[in-house]
Amino acid sequence: VRLVESGGGVVQAGGSLRLSCVASGYTDNSDYMAWFRQAPGKEREGVAAIDGDGMVIYAESVKGRFTISKDKAKNTLYLQMNALQPEDTAMYYCAAGGHVVPIATMIEVDYRYWGQGTQVTVSS
Fold first, then answer.
1. Kind of pairing between the strands at 76-81 and 90-96
2. For 82-98, how does the pLDDT look when each residue is reduced to its tens digit (9 = 90+)?
3. CB neighbours of 51 closer than 8 A, spacing ≥ 6?
4. How far is it, in rounded angstroms, from Cα 38 to Cα 40?
5. For 47-104, how does the pLDDT look when each residue is reduced to its tens digit (9 = 90+)?
6. Could you give phi then psi for residue 115, rounded to 5 degrees?
7. Torsion of CA 8, 116, 41, 34, to 10 degrees
């Protein structure tokens, strides 16, 4: 299983980015997937998750600004990020659960597969 993120970059506050995560060697559309992020000096935190039926959950800090979605035909997970703020600056990671638990969560240990991350930097 390989997860490859892309779409990160440098953007001004108020701007938008769309992250993508292509999954290869992994076509289990019933599984849950998520985006996590880790800012310098901070622990990794869950941002958004989606299950095989399309049910989504978000961290309070990104509700109303970020949207997680999945294109099952392309095996690609997305994170549309709008109204970005400097506190959104972090390395963003894609993760696939591998059915560690029965439902989508935003808990690191519930995810078996991880990408290498893509950097998002928001300037003020």
1. unpaired
2. 999 999 999 999 999 98
3. 32, 103, 104
4. 7
5. 999 999 999 999 999 999 999 999 999 999 999 999 999 999 999 999 999 899 999 9
6. -85, 180
7. 80
Instruction: Summarize pLDDT for 21-41 with one digit per residue, the tens.
Output: 999 988 788 899 999 999 999
Q: How far is CA 58 from CA 41, 46, 50, 100, in A?
A: 22, 8, 9, 20
**Tokens representing residue 54 in the block:** 């399309």
Contact (Cβ atoms closer than 8 angstroms) between residue 55 and residue 32: no
Residue 3 CB coordination number (10 Å):
22
Distance CA 45, CA 20 (A): 18
Tokens of 71: 């294109």
